[in-house]
Amino acid sequence: MENWSLVSICVLFGLTARWAVSLNSYSGAGKPPMFGDYEAQRHWQEVTYNLPVHEWYFNTTDNNLNYWGLDYPPLTAYHSLLCAHVAKLINPDWVELHASRGHESYGHKLFMRATVLVADLLIYIPAVVLYSFYLSEGSNKKKVCTVLCILLYPGLILIDYGHFQYNSISLGLALWGVVVLGLGWDVLGSLAFVLSLNYKQMELYHSLPFFCYLLGKCFKQGLAGRGLFLLVKIAVTVLVTFALCWLPFLSDPGQILQVVHRLFPVGRGLFEDKVANTWCSLNVLIKIKTILSTDTQLYISLTTTLLAILPSSIKLLMKPTLWQFKLALVNSSLAFFLFSFQVHEKSILLPALPVCLLLNDLPLPAIWFLQASTFSMLPLFLKDGLLVPYVVTSLAFLFFSIYLLSALEHCSEDKLRLGPYRRLLICMPRMDLGRVTKWKFYFSITAMAGLSFMSVALAPPAQLPDLFPLLVSVFSYLHFLGLLLYFNIVQIAEPPQSVRKNQKKSN
Amino acid sequence: TQCLFTLVIAPDTETLKLTEQQILFYHSTDFEVHRNWLAITHSLPVSKWYHENTSEWTLDYPPLFAWFEYSLSHVAQHFDKEMLVVQNLLYTSPATILFQRLSVIVTDIVFIYAVKECCRSVREEKGSKDLLGHPFFILAALLLWNFGLLIVDHIHFQYNGFLFGILLLSVARHLQGRHLEGALLFTVLLNLKHIYLYIAPAYGIFLLRSYCFTEDNTDGSVRWSSFSPVRLVALGSIVISVGALSFGPFIAMGQLPQVLSRLFPFKRGLCHAYWAPNVWALYNMVDKALSVLGVRLKLLDVAKLPKASMTGGLVQEFQHSILPSVSPSITLICTLLSIMPAVLSIWCRPRGARGFLRCLVVCALGSFMFGWHVHEKAILMAILPFSILAVESREDAGIFLMLTTTGHYSLFPLLFTAAELPIKVLLMLLFTLYSFTSLKKLFRGSLLNPLETTYLLGLVAVEILCEVVYPLSPWQHTMPFVPLLVTSVYCSLGVCYSFIRLYVSLLRQHGTDKHKQL
């Protein structure tokens, strides 16, 4: 069959899965007074439609910031405004100021789900198809398989179409950045990334690799001549894009400060709920939150984050290739997730995006990571009533990715790039690290299934009501930490000969 | 076999997925029908099964299916006991829904096994190395991902996967030459759901002609002397013993008339509320057009017209105003006449199990075209077995594409809520795109002529008109039946066309066979 038909079948399948999940419940459904993220997005439509721009980020009589105040950058606000205009056309009640608060109805749910689907279809899915066809290696069939596996990643589907958010926009724009940079159009790539940063500030997790990659490229071309020109071009693009996005707020410095203050709420503490990152996991042993002051927490997290991203960034700066870039994106965003301040469990989607891009190169570790990332959000899914979609999409993803990418056949030491481990473990008895990895994978998947089952079926002991969410987050944390080390080692160790050759070709 | 494995698992995950969503917001009448049957078979003695009428959805499947429900109910009681109480009408707890949906998925295993057996008996061409290009792979995908089956079973709710599994398994057994097993399976199937009586003539004549007569004359006609009474007795004992097992207890209790009256309710109208796309849809349409025309030309008096005729499509009873009304016996005669040539052709010139399969498809389609109170879902009875022929011959592939696309589109009104619109469109596109591209690749070239392509593209226009444009127009309130009417009339054109082409292909084969012998 021709490629186009195979790709369309994959895309249709991905869309079906998305819409099927979207028929389920959303966060905060029928839970007054605060509801959930769904209501937050609806509320932003209401606010942006009815209030003038300069009131969006301020606490006024018409805009109570304590009730889902706008805390995303301007592009999100514009997007809400756009959706609000459509909503107004369909049913004015949906965006009525004050009166629409907590509005829930069948029609409105359909409308909101449709907005996610449209955004996904316009931004994320084309980027995935382009990436797989232009920037990944292998036969056409392999590329089609990659498209399908990326589109079926359960974490993103469940958060966007179940829980309710627009991650596919910010992630999609970042992916456009990667694709365009990979094709060699540096200016357009930086434009796409700045847009994604202006849609969701969490994209900062990806910013350092973008910066290092572009800077490294400028260095390579020589900072005296063409490199400088390129640097200036990129800098101008970034500044102009930023200025355009922030245009309505530029007139008054107070506006800018207020927006920035809304975007980075430092006062909210080191972490909330149960997150699979270092601080939450450490909290089991030491109660950091109570021992240290907020400032100290801030400094500690800043230092550790910087330390964790330093090696991969320096390596990327020295050697700005696409391969290094993808790995640096993983390493940087994962380090941010594990060590930075005020991390949400949903932020795991940010490292998950670049890991999706590695599905073709390092199938087993990538699948492992993606599955662990979905698993780490289990408590959230249970709260939203998304158990069945979680089980089904996870099973489907595992099945399709392992089978189509033949993940379990390609796990020799060489393919998994485990050479450096061999050198580290020189004193250990000789064993086949590839096989060990495979068994660890089986064990971990079984454990995830077991923990999922226990979270659903068993009642936690009375004195430890948070036992299962905690176990889930610590267990996933161990995965993330191990994979952070692994991806760092893969990035820093020189790639094997064959890969290097391919890279030369693609450059 | 590895690829089969993929395909086997894939739809399961898919079906699960489709299933899960339905949990929260939508239950079809068939869902309640089956819940009620679970309750009846579980809580009442056998003697009351066919007398119970608390719910309007009385047990109207043959006894074996009642026993099937009975065995399911023993699992069901571990999910939620309340669903097994007859008086709990429209009872839908999450556990009930989960159980019902899971029961469909689990019993689908029969279907998957049957597909595997069918794929084994497909003729393979040599040379093709690409896995995706193998006929057996395409067949597996066409059957397992069949759009109609997915939406009817997993969204709407019925146990067709299980039933068609038995049908396909029986067909596969005939293709493999294991006729007694095939006959046994079909008898069981008949006792599960009597709608398969429509294809019983194909089975009966085929088994009689090609199994009970062991040899042909040189010109292909029947050699009467080769009749094997042993084989006939074997067949007969299978049929009678299964029938006795199923209906025996009811005959013993003297309830046979009661059971039969439940199984064949001729009190319903000629057409279902939504007209299945068959000859009667066209007939009704012509009648309506004539009556409107008559009123316009002042030849008819509006007051004298039967009232229901002006709301057609939403009311069960449809009275014809100009053309003569159709009685059940007329539909029966039409059906018999329509399948007669096909059945005669396999009697006169048997062409093995494949000829039988073609005849079976003709019977299924013929009864769909002319039957009494036909449901749109019955089109699957022709589409699924036809898939096997479609991957083996170019001409059949063309007919198959016409038939499946129109037939599947005609199922759209089954899912009518706005939330299901994207799902049905996406799934339909998925299946249609796959069937077109894979069959085109298999037979290396276009399979449809421009007129057929235009007709099929017209379906897109119909869909947009009926589900997007019309609801926004002012006529939605005054004449809400128009979209259904347009859908069924448009689809019935395509189904009739496929039926005629199928017949032509059958008779032409008949002709060429004769020609060869001359």
Notes on the structure:
By secondary structure, chain A is mainly alpha-helical. Helices cover 69% and strands 0% of the residues of chain A. In chain A, helix 3 (74-90) crosses helix 8, helix 4 runs antiparallel to helix 5 (140-151) and helix 15 (322-339) runs antiparallel to helix 22. The longest helix of chain A is centred in the N-terminal third of the chain and has 30 residues, at 106-135. Mean pLDDT of chain A is 89; it is low at 500-507. The radius of gyration of chain B is 23 Å and the shape is globular. Chain B has 518 residues and is an all-alpha fold. The longest helix of chain B has 36 residues, at 482-517. The model of chain B is unreliable at 308-316 (pLDDT under 50). Chain B has helices at 2-25, 29-43, 63-76, 94-120, 135-144, 147-157, 160-175, 179-192, 200-212, 229-252, 256-263, 279-296, 328-348, 352-370, 380-390, 394-409, 420-442, 450-472, 475-478, 482-517. In chain B, helix 8 (179-192) packs parallel to helix 10 (229-252). Classes of the chains: A mainly alpha (507), B mainly alpha (518). Chain A binds chain B through residues 1-2, 5, 8-9, 12-13, 15-17, 19-21, 23-25, 106-107, 110, 117, 388-389, 392-393, 395-396, 399-400, 403, and chain B through 6, 9-10, 13-14, 16-18, 20-25, 132-133, 418-419, 422-423, 426-427, 429-430, 433-434, 437-438, 441. Chain B: Pathway: Protein modification; protein glycosylation. Chain B: Pfam families: Alg6_Alg8 (PF03155). Chain B: It is a multi-pass membrane protein. Chain B: Belongs to the ALG6/ALG8 glucosyltransferase family. Chain B: It is found in: Endoplasmic reticulum membrane. Chain A: GO terms for molecular function: dolichyl pyrophosphate Man9GlcNAc2 alpha-1,3-glucosyltransferase activity.
